[in-house]
Structures are given as C-alpha cells and as structure tokens.
C-alpha cells in the first residue's frame, strides 16, 4: 500500500461519517488516518467504524499546524489530505495512482471535482469555469505540466488546483504548509512545489465532491476578508502591486457568486 488519506477532523462535523465512508469504499485499498486536535468519543467511534487510525494533535493552534501534523502521521509515499466535509468517489485513489504511475516524475496529482450543496451536486458554476480555464494556462489541454513556467501558470491568477483533490508525493516533497496563513496555505504550497523539480499531473475526471456550506472555514474566511488579503499577498509575489490588486478584485466577483 503506497497511499494514505489523512483526514484533519474538528469538533462535531455532521459530514465526517460520509467522508470516512467514501474513503473506506475506495476501489483500491488505502490507509485512512484521522488526525484531530479535538478528540471526542464520536470521532474515535467513527474512526474505528471505518478502519481508520486515530492520531491526536496535542499542539493544535491553526489549520496549517493541523495539516502539517496530519501529513506527519502518514508513512506512505502518496498522501491525500481529505477534508472532513467532502466525499471521494470510489475511483479516486485508483485513478490518481494510475496517473502517478504513467508520470513517474509527478510531484502532485489532482483530479476534477464537483461542488456538493444543499441543492445538490454542481459541476458547472462561475468559479469552476474560471478555475478550469486557469488550469489550461499550464496544461494546454494535456495532463502534465512539467516546467516551472507552466506549473506556475496554473497558479498565476488564483489557486485553480483544488486542495482536497490533490495527492502529494510526500516522499519526494516533504511538504510543509505555511502556518501563518488561514485560507491560502494550499496555494502557497503549490507555488512552492512549482519551483521544485517534479511535474503537476491533472486527472480531468470528476472524482470527488467538495462540500460548500455556510459553516466552512473558507466561507468564513471570505466573509471576514482573510481570503482577499491573502490572495493579494500571494498575487504580489508574481505580479506588480496594481496588477495583483486588480486580479484579486476580479477574482472576488466569483467568490461572491459562489463562495467556495
């Protein structure tokens, strides 16, 4: 077994069981690890019910700390940070690892995704269309972005690579997320990986569903202004200040129409 799902779990999420059920139902066997700074009898029982290991983060203190702890719990080469609110289709692991096998230089592999809302599954929204278009700046209709230029192109106008759909070659990368960010720590991490050797590989098939709801950290970050501030800071790493601010303002329109 060379793949693990690590699931940072918090509080009493009503969606954690659906997430774990989807991980346990993968067509290709995988390891499941629940990592939590808020242990509870419910989290412990759900982990046991779905064959997951339970690891407690005694440090806590923020999403970057929690994600880094979760990554440290995995011993496999390939690791997916599964968000506790999301659902993974049965072919996710198999398709991801098959793509990694076809591209031995891959540093990360990610799949297409849909949005899961109270109104059902959405596969075509303003934000999803924008992100798919941005990805083509690096992939140009293909499945592999191998140079720093093309990898960075996928990230130059925003974080088009969906964090919960990403599987990292942790044996190669030894990735650590920035702990000073609240929302854009995934974007910052992919920018870091774009500077390193290794290809980004894109599996276009929709193989996971990202839940959009008012209680999510992303939605709270948009409402509180954290995302806009972090967007501008990362864009300014690639663009002159006025250009970065204009891009951030334009991207914010999509957040308002679909905050995810």
UniProtKB/TrEMBL annotation:
A Pfam family that the UniProt record links to this protein: Glycos_transf_2
Molecular function terms from GO: transferase activity
Domain Glycosyltransferase 2-like: 4-115
Signal peptide (from-to): none
Sorted UniProt keywords: Transferase
Domain of life: Bacteria
Gene3D superfamilies on file: Spore Coat Polysaccharide Biosynthesis Protein SpsA, Chain A (3.90.550.10)
Keyword Disulfide bond in annotation: no
Protein name as it appears in the record: Glycosyltransferase
